[in-house]
Task: structure prediction
Amino acid sequence: MTTTEIKTNDRTTIPATTVRSNRATARLDFAKAAPKAFRAVIGLDAAARAGLDPTLVELVQIRASHLNRCAYCLHMHTTDARKAGESEERLHMVAVWQEAEHFFTPAEQAALALTDAVTRIGDAGMPDEVYDRAAAHFPEEELAHLLALIFTINTWNRIALSTAKRAGTDER
Result:
């Protein structure tokens, strides 16, 4: 067995990237088990959003959730985006935004590219052209908030995936 494989109960191996929880309930309630850590993430999330366009916030959160394969967060943020008036058409295009750039403003495209790069930072680092593109559309303070938002949604995705949160069970 390699580090990219997981042994299953029937003595077969499958790539680790395909392993998903089939649990009917979450593994633990992170908010109850680590309330200070949970509140800290909530605080970072609220601070990150400050000054950012709410539509942009949802697009970034949806894109990171696509990349991380977090159905729980994807369901939550597409629901929030719809409630805020986002079109079904654009919501469907977020997953393939590079092939459907005309659905998004240049600033949204830059933010989505930045989201891709930060979420996949372990694969290729942060390409200068991606950072420079975002910096051309967002003043320094707004860019810092955008980065913090991307950090935060990646944290939320990891919490939801690690604790086996199920899509559609959002209790907000």
In short: Residues 6-14 have pLDDT under 50 and may be disordered. The longest strand covers residues 5-7. The two ends are 41 Å apart (CA to CA). The beta strands are 5-7, 13-15.
